[in-house]
């Protein structure tokens, strides 16, 4: 059986000087990180306009020396921001990450897709349609940029966002037919509060999108009264063992980024997940 490689958000260790960050992460049982530059690196200015091949190579080299891959650059923008000036700045920031991703050693740059109700106050009857058109236009531009630099545009769906279901993700992939677009699959984000339908939601995602998945996120669902919350993987209501087995079938050796977890919990959680996945 192929072994799933587990990683986590680099800023799970906090926002630290680069050398401290890599040495801290090195002591935990992870193969890669999802790196959001400004959230994780304290002592280097990575604001828009500051990236270069040299800077990206330097940061990538420090992680490589620690034996950790940069599996993905996290650049979580709002691609449907209602202010076109703000949206343009966000798009340009994301495009800069795409330009230098390979120098970091990252094959992809990932984002979510903005709130489903973004335009509801402006257009209460057409807000979903306007949000969709805005998202599609943004994704078309970002996909074209990703193709230029030979990297993936990773897109993550969430039950309360414009890509609220696997079916909507499939529609976007059909309407923007670029091979540079990949799916970042976080099953708990799509399940939301609909815990009883989790197997149906997960299975539909694999059926519709399995060939386009490039990264998985993993956490768990915990019920507190009438509400649910997310927490560390493997001990909640999410059918983790079944999910890991499906991952092995559809995407052997895919990277799995652990979320809603603290660094001291990672080693024990990786051991639990490894046992569940057998």
Largest sheet, spatial ordering of strands: 1-2-3-4-5-6-7-10
Q: Number of DSSP strands?
A: 10
Q: Gyration radius, to the nearest Å? A: 18 Å
Give the low-confidence spans: none
Largest sheet: 8 strands, parallel, barrel
What average pLDDT do the residues reach? 96
Determine the number of helices (DSSP H or I, runs of at least 4 residues).
Answer: 10
Please state the overall shape, judged from the principal axes of the Cα atoms: globular
The ordered H/E elements are EHEHHEHEHEHEHHEEEHEH
- Measured between the Cα atoms of the first and last residue, the distance is 8 Å
Helix content: 40-55%
**Percent of residues in β-strands:** 15-25%
Structural class: alpha/beta
